[in-house]
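Can't paste images in this forum, so I'm doing it all in text. The chain is below; anyone willing to post the predicted structure tokens underneath?
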Amino acid sequence: MKKIEISKELKQKIKHIINYVLVGIGMIMCFILGYHINNMIGNKVDEKPYEIKRSSVIIAADETSNILFLDKTGSKVLMIMNDSIVTSIFNIKAKTILRPVSTEVINKK
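Text version of the structure:
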């Protein structure tokens, strides 16, 4: 009887240990996979900001309202700006240029 009880307890403990080992291996594999995916996707090369002078580019718009900054020769696209970004820049620039309009009525007699 004791041998049967000991073997049952031993089997249960082995099952628990195997379950913990499998869960641990699964967690380790997920961490390794996440680490490698983060290295592949997350570490993109950051470009240093550069200045584009107005005299060296041509500004054009395409059919989807995107703004294109082209090289003077027109052969190389330096930057593409989305229409929402262009609208935001235009609104900011317009607010600085906009002058308040007087509401006075000029009476002509």
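The first strand starts at residue 57 and ends at 61. The mean pLDDT is 78.
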